[in-house]
UniProtKB/TrEMBL annotation:
One of its GO terms (molecular function) is hydrolase activity. It comes from Streptomyces ferrugineus. It comes from the Bacteria. This is Cellulase family glycosylhydrolase. Keywords: Hydrolase.
Length: 421
């Protein structure tokens, strides 16, 4: 039923959007262990292959223990290697987003020894541990500032994966993020660039998770979302070809926009991919096409960055099975069918850009931190939204406490708010 109706504000002219399309760079030789013996020629070969697909940027990762093996020691040689990689990407024609504190990568956690064992420090709450991470981000920012192909500096990859071993409250997370974002901005200085943070999906639909939707949608220069089809068993629950799966990234963007205080705040689909067996290899090309095209239907989308560039070589042990097949290139460097599908889709979207259709109907989301899961796969709200989408509507998401806010609704072009059926 209709919950409320508003008059839409006069739309501003919507120039042709320039969406960004990129890939998260995973080195073909040695995965991220390659930082132990960095080979510029191999890295340049990987980056050239990425650029040849038509992507315009990469997101890159160093390992925290190699950068900062002691709380008060940041290794100049390791920072220089990172800067070298950024320059190689620029030479290949790629802009670069740098993640600072890794942290968590592909199911492995990388902690410096000064945070572990007898020296254990909670990385989110210990004041000296926080200041050490801030010092690392300031150092990285100063080392990279001024490069014209640098997109910016992100605090780290999905830092909320570390909460299991580092208990933290939502208020403490806010302090942690605010401190590190300020340090990253200080490091980049007047040269500027994006300053961001990222979290995996529990931040959006994990009940009482200490990393909150509000933190993701309001801190930093834009909102990053990582809509993975294995989260809440989405692909297994609905099927790999289901609308719930193929519209998941689009839904993630709209959900993020609901929590933002700035209606114009951009949203970046920073990680999405086709993990086997959740998405069988035969379905991966169509999944990739649909995911990118559906996300492009969202106003305010900054871009899409695929996970990931290269498969993990099976000579490396103990990865979850899905990690071995997530790349656009296999471990020999051969482009897979999904790479070709994405290249064609990106080329088409660039050749024929169009403005998204208005989302003048919004579905009301009424949840608390303890019932946030209703908005995730399997939840009643998620299923109501995807049902509307399947029926041909393009619903926005609006929070219950803003459903009567005429200014907020008008700024987003929302004319009516409906309750989930």
């Amino acid at each position: 039923m209709i919950h409320s109706r508003r008059t839409r504000a006069e739309p501003e002219e919507d120039p042709i959007r320039t969406l960004r399309f990129g890939v998260n760079y995973t080195p073909r030789h040695g995965w991220f262990h390659s930082w132990h013996d960095f080979d510029p020629a191999r890295a340049r070969g990987d980056l050239d292959a990425i650029a040849a697909l038509g992507f315009d940027h990469v997101r890159v990762f160093h390992l925290w223990p190699l950068l900062q093996p002691n709380r008060t020691l940041i290794r100049t040689a390791a920072v220089d290697r990172l800067a070298h990689l950024v320059d190689l990407a620029g030479e290949a024609g790629l802009d670069v987003m740098v993640d600072g504190v890794q942290g968590h990568l592909s199911s492995f956690d990388f902690y410096p020894e000064w945070t572990r064992g007898w020296h254990h420090r909670n990385v989110f709450t210990d004041p000296e541990a926080i200041e050490a991470q801030a010092a690392l981000l300031r150092t990285l920012g100063r080392a990279l500032a001024g490069r014209p192909h640098l997109l910016g500096l992100q605090l780290g990859n999905e830092l909320n994966n570390l909460v299991e071993h580092n208990p933290v409250t939502a208020d403490e997370v806010d302090h942690y993020l605010d401190t590190l974002l300020a340090a990253a901005r200080d490091g980049l200085g007047t040269a500027g660039g994006l300053v961001t943070h990222s979290a995996y999906d529990a931040a959006w639909y994990g009940d009482d998770h200490p990393f909150t939707p509000e933190a993701s949608a309001r801190k930093g220069d834009l909102t990053t979302v990582h809509p993975w089809v294995f989260s809440a068993d989405c692909a297994r629950r609905y099927g790999p070809r289901s609308p719930q799966v193929r519209h998941l990234a689009e839904y993630g963007v709209e959900l993020a926009k609901a929590y933002a205080t700035d209606p114009a705040r951009p949203v970046w689909v920073q990680e999405t991919g086709a993990p086997e067996p959740h998405i069988p290899a035969a379905d991966a090309p169509d999944f990739a096409r649909a995911t990118v095209r559906n996300a492009a239907e969202c106003a305010g989308l900054w871009g899409v960055t695929w996970w990931c560039s290269h498969d993990v070589d099976r000579s490396l042990a103990d990865f979850p099975e899905l990690e071995y097949t997530l790349g656009l290139f296999d471990s020999t460097g051969r482009a897979k069918p999904i790479a070709e599908a994405l290249a064609e889709t990106v080329a088409d979207l660039r050749a024929r850009p169009r403005s998204p259709e208005p989302r003048d109907t919004a579905l009301l989301l009424d949840c608390t931190p303890g019932t946030r899961s209703v908005s995730g796969p399997g939840g009643a709200y998620f299923e109501a939204w995807t049902r509307l989408r399947t029926e041909g509507s393009r619903p926005a998401v609006v929070l219950a406490d803003r459903a009567q806010d005429a200014e907020h609704l008008a700024a987003r072009g929302i004319e009516e708010v409906v309750r989930p059926a």
